């Protein structure tokens, strides 16, 4: 296992510039449950350095008095271990730079990358995944825990190129990043399943009275059957909760991850809470209802600004009237679309804001969530205050852009996404900086 | 009289969940294979009302994992509920909406079918059927 040293605040800021950090208002900034290096690292990446500093300064004790220096180092787990990703990168780099492969179709890179990643997944006892070419819903790729495949859009990746030699280093690096990022999701889901198995086992062990007695009798009468029965019961439980395939649930049931047993289970618990636990409503909203409400606004608000400019340039009254008609129609359309945003604002966003605000000791993740909701609500309230016409079209476009950007950042900061992005980006950077070995001498 | 889409889904699910099912045999049973992308088989379906079928194997064996079918005409969530009963909801991913999950028995004694339909609208033209072992 490699270990990574926490970057200082200034380095973090260089690494990932953040949106307006002053948006975190002191009224909404709750106290952190604990100031740990992990919390600070996460908050820096998500809500930014300034906001993190504000939160930390509000703690009663300075950070250095509350944290053990030995915990400043953080173990990178599984595929996130940079040694693991560099192994994958070396295999792909060697293949892509082998003259014998130059004329091969870029698609032939995919099994090379996937086999290298799967070998690493196998080493850490995660069931391997597969690529399914299906357009990936217009995205580059997405891991589907329901089918245990990576949906991929290779056309989008290779953009009509027909030979590996035609691909730039950046294009191959980006393909490695996509598959590595999605494979990390595969690892995450399996670890969540293992944690659920661990929780199940812990509940069984804590059982007492008649239940425990029956268990003992069953074990004594037919130990092998009892083990199989337990595995089936745990797998069914995992399958019902997560919707991952039963064969994967069965494997997870045989590898329970003990709750509270260190960083691996700590991470798994964060992902579990985000996807299936207490924070699932927030996640479902960011990836579902809010996304569906905000996304359709981007194009018409941009078109409206263009139409307003067109009307200003129109030379005849007829052209001006025609353009005004189009503007009026578009405004009607935008106002109708905005109703969906207001509906989410008044229902799920408000409910989640209330829930998160009421938490006495929120985690770093929950603090970030509350910050995003606060910012999103702020943008929506500003949008609502605008009476849309030609004079406010530009402001509306800007606010819709900020709202869409904040929603995107909220998705990016979900613990499982933040983790997968970091993991995929590391692999991409490693590929970019990989060098072609000098040809062997005679 | 032509089969309804529900009848076709049940027939495909039945073939998918047989204990001896193998990816290629299954694909040939459902139509004509016209492309192989790695181990993924693209099939021109023999069924009326189905425009495309993809058969995916498991990652580590030649047993089928799931089948994706594309319908000529969208089917509503209500129609699926009427046919397969209530569903569970599974969470979304960044570029994949939440899905309705219907579980149902087939004639197989070893596996059951899990039907998945996206929940980002009231109807869909894409359905996925997964093969799940009965523990």
Give an overview of the whole structure:
- The complex is a heterodimer of chains A (442) and B (135).
- Chain A has 442 residues and is mostly helical.
- Chain A has 3 domains: 3-75, no CATH class; 77-277, no CATH class; 280-424.
- Helices cover 65% and strands 4% of the residues of chain A.
- In chain A, a hairpin with a 4-residue loop joins β4 (141-144) and β5 (149-152).
- The longest helix of chain A is centred in the last third of the chain and has 41 residues, at 317-357.
- In chain A, 40% of the residues are buried.
- The model of chain A is unreliable at 1-32 and 59-73 (pLDDT under 50).
- Chain B has 135 residues and is of the alpha+beta class.
- Chain B has one domain (5-133).
- Helices cover 21% and strands 46% of the residues of chain B.
- Chain B has 3 helices and 8 strands.
- Chain B has helices at 5-16, 23-30, 77-84; strands at residues 31-37, 40-45, 50-57, 64-76, 88-90, 99-104, 111-118, 123-133.
- Chain B has an 8-stranded antiparallel beta sheet with strand order 1-2-3-4-8-7-6-5.
- In chain B, β2 (40-45) and β3 form a beta hairpin.
- The mean pLDDT of chain B is 95.
- The interface between A and B is large, with 46 and 34 residues.
Residues in helix, % of chain A: 55-70%
Task: Summarize model confidence as the mean pLDDT of chain A.
Answer: 84
The tally of structural domains of chain A comes to: 3
- The neighbouring-strand order within the major sheet of chain B is 1-2-3-4-8-7-6-5
Please state the average pLDDT score of chain B: 95
